[in-house]
Amino acid sequence: MTPKQFTKCLEQIRWSMRGVADHLGVHETRIRRWATGALPVPEQVAQWLEALANAHKLNPVPKIDIGKDNLK
């Protein structure tokens, strides 16, 4: 996984680097190194992120109309 692919996956699943670090139980510095290409993204992590990104593509956030009548 390239740094660009890594960043795109994070954008698609709407996670910050800190969020990914928390989920994986690693320091945020490691995530930043993956994002810059200083360290390779482990294959298991790349597959997991790609699966999550694909799931988000297939199941987008629903669009809801929040009008005056729906404030309850």
Q: From the alpha carbons, calculate the radius of gyration and give it in angstroms.
A: 15 Å
User: Averaging pLDDT over every residue, what do you get?
Assistant: 92
What's the number of structural domains?
1
Give the termini distance in whole angstroms: 44 Å
Strand content: under 5%
What is the share of helical residues? 55-70%
Order of helices and strands: HHHH
Topology of helices and strands:
Layout: H1 3-13, H2 17-24, H3 28-36, H4 43-58
Helix pairs in contact: 1-4, 2-3
Question: What key phrases describe this protein's structure?
Answer:
mainly alpha, elongated, single chain, 61% helix, 4 helices
What does this structure look like?
The chain has 72 residues and is an all-alpha fold. It has one domain. The chain contains four helices and no strands. It has helices at residues 3-13, 17-24, 28-36, 43-58. The termini are far apart.
Short synopsis of the structure:
By secondary structure, this protein is mainly α. The protein is elongated and about 50 Å long. Helix 1 (3-13) packs across helix 4 (43-58) and helix 2 (17-24) packs across helix 3.
